[in-house]
Structures are given as C-alpha cells and as structure tokens.
Amino acid sequence: MSLPDSMTREQAVALLATTPQYIPGPCPWCKATTIKEAETRCRPMCMPCGDYECGTPDEAPDDGGLLHQRNSDYDALSGYLWEWLAFDEGLTDTPPTWGEDETA
User: Fold this and answer.
1) Neighbour tally for 56: CB within 10 Å
2) Which pairs count as long-range contacts for 80-84, CB under 8 Å and 24+ apart, including other chains?
3) Closest C-alpha to 73, from 8, 18, 10
4) Tell me: the pLDDT tens digits for 50-67?
5) CA–CA separation, 22 vs 48, rounded Å?
6) Plot region of 90 (φ>0 → left; ψ -120 to 50 → alpha; else → beta)
7) pLDDT over 80 at 76, yes or no
8) pLDDT (tens digit, 9 = 90+) per residue, 11-50?
C-alpha cells in the first residue's frame, strides 16, 4: 500500500479504518515466515515446555500459519492522528502536517 503525499485529518481517519494493523511478514530475527519454521529457528526460551521466543509481536493475529508484523503504514497514520490529538488538547500550538517523514 502506498500512502498519499498529502492528507487531511479526515482522510487519515478514513484510511486508518481500512488499513490492517498487522500484515504477513517474516520474523525480523530468524526470517521465518511461518509459525512452524519459527519453532525450529527462533531463540529458545529457558522454559520446560519448550516454548520459543519469536520476533513477531504477541498481539499479532494467529491464523495458525503465517507470522505477522506491524504494518508501517498503520503506524504512520496512527502517529499522525496522535499528533492531531496533541494539537486539539493544546499540548502543541502547531497543527501536524503529513509528509515524507511520517512514513520513514
């Protein structure tokens, strides 16, 4: 997904509603793409049950197959809207502007 170069608050709210928070993506540590791969590649935890620690966020969806990572587009939109909240609450005098630095 490609985010626009300029955006209003209303456009960001509408776009955030249709942007998934997590997308399928490999583990940043071991590069596994499935849960089964991560079980054999990721960092083992010192637990008797044999659990493993994976670079996939705990809040990510578990569909029983693919690993998921946070969506950078979702995070950029969310951050932009948090900046608007800070402006609305009087924490800053400058309204936020959407730009290149938001998606970096």
Assistant:
1) 24
2) 80/7, 80/12, 81/9, 81/12, 81/13, 81/16, 84/9, 84/12
3) 18
4) 666 676 777 788 777 888
5) 30
6) left
7) yes
8) 999 999 999 999 999 988 888 898 888 878 876 555 566 6
Contact call for residues 54 and 38 (beta carbons, < 8 A)? yes
Extended strands (E) in the chain = 22-24, 43-44, 52-53, 68-70
Residues across the chain: 104
Token readout for 44 is 């083992």
Instruction: Please tell me the predicted confidence (pLDDT) of residue 30.
Output: 85
E strand or H helix that includes residue 41: helix 35-41
Domain ranges of the chain: 1-21+71-104, 24-69
Contacts of residue 95, Cβ cutoff 8 Å, sequence gap at least 6: 84, 87
